[in-house]
Amino acid sequence: MTAKLIHGYEVVIGFETHAQLATQSKIFSRASTAFGAEPNTQACAVDLALPGTLPVMNRAAVACAIKLGLALGSHIAPASVFARKNYFYPDLPKGYQISQFEIPVVQGGEVSFFLGEEKKTVRLVRAHLEEDAGKSLHEEFHGMSGIDLNRAGTPLLEIVTEPDMRSTEEAVAYAKALHQIVTWIGICDGNMQEGSFRCDANVSVRKPGQPLGTRREIKNLNSFRYMQQAIDYEIRWQIEQLEDGYAIQQATVLFDPDTGETRAMRTKEDAADYRYFPDPDLPPLVVAPEWIERVKAEMPELPQAMAARFVEQYGLPEYDATTLTQSQAMAAYFEDAAKGCSQPKLASNWVMGEISRRLNAEEIGMEAVKVTSAQLAALIGRIQDGTISNNAARQVFEALWTGEGQDVDAIITAKGLKQMNDTGALEKIIDEVIAANPANVEQYKAGKDKAFNALVGQVMKASKGKANPQQVNELLKAKLA
Q: Using one digit for the tens of pLDDT, what is the confidence trace for 84-96?
């Protein structure tokens, strides 16, 4: 499929994502990584590179990198090297950041996802381990900046893509897919507000068939909504600059959500500006095949594999299976409900429909769902065996959700929602409706379908909604034949 052009320009986007790893201590020290501590209470001598200190690699951080490599089909380097990335910034106490440059631990791989009905794949260049810097605080200090070094030394995986994305929608879908994977395999909590998952988007534009344009990097996008706004603005800005005859200068830019604009922070450095060299205090990181196999054995079933199984095992459409595997909690809930009823597709419809709608409305996650999977399975069972109609099922669901009742059958009895399955009683109501509505009967016989629907409505009304709609249709057609 050819890329969509904007004013005759093709958009090219690549991503660098920093995922904070879910370890209890920092990447090279034993200092805590817990969020929300008082400023500068979780930065130890090693994080500050004080004289006489030496970094020691955190084994759990390496295990996280191995998990990501396995999840994305990457090559996991048997030996990788740590480097010093040299630059001065007030919140970088060492004057350098320990990262990986020439030989990263995770190499290649890909992330696949759906954009509407179309399957997309983004290739990865690498994912490397590194430490985070501290944080500069400007708002609370008039005319000064405060420095909080609690984040200094926090373990990160920087995940770098090829420039494979051709639209803002594709870029945001990629970011969501990656977010799903890192949270699913448990290497990152994915909390974007706390900075656990933040993305840098490299954006450029070009005329079709031309070489890649000059890119500008939008830093630290920590919400999918801001990501969409920032990239859209940057694309428009670059096209306007080129159309007005100006060249694009490579730069690092920030997005201001208040104005909806990006603004240049500094001209973009290249690798040579950082004077990378191997860190003399850290030996090469060696990952033995046995270690990879141990990590592999502990990995959960991955989203794509689970979605494929849902298609195969439960006969779901691929779209349903992909939607239900957005989180482990949703997938587990669906599977429990599907096993408890004979129609998995109905379970899928309820989870993707009514349950998702209520979770969104109340802004709660799947872990706080107010109807258990067993209750949903029981409710679906009562729809299937004709005990209640779809309309009555929604009333039962409402009672379960609000805590009005816990047992499906008890709610049906208490609310008098049982469908009328007595053919004799139903025929009597139908006879009365036919007798009372001769005009509709004539119209139906003259070929007007709306007249039939009107008669069905009258029967349902006379039965106080308890008649089985399918049975009403069959009996009414037979009587009118």
A: 999 988 899 899 9
**449-462 helix and 469-480 helix, angle to the nearest 10 degrees:** 120
Segment 161-171, tens digit of pLDDT? 999 999 999 99
Torsion of CA 321, 300, 63, 276, to 10 degrees: -10
Percent share of the chain, pLDDT over 90: 71
Residue 249 tokens read as 């200068």
In terms of Cα–Cα distance, which of 202, 260, 258, 270 is closest to 233? Answer: 260
| Residue pair 186/230 in contact by the 8 Å Cβ criterion | no
Cβ atoms within 10 Å of 481's Cβ, excluding its own: 6
For residue 395, the number of C-alpha atoms closer than 13 Å in the C-beta half-sphere is 17
- Which residue bears the tokens 């008039």? 142
What single string gives the DSSP state of each residue in 410-460? HHHHHHT---B--HHHHHHHHHHHHHH-HHHHHHHHTT-HHHHHHHHHHHH
In the prediction, which pLDDT does 421 show?
A: 66
CA distance linking residue 406 with residue 288, whole number of Å:
52
Of the candidates 411, 424, 338, 423, the one whose C-alpha atom is nearest the C-alpha of residue 381 is: 338
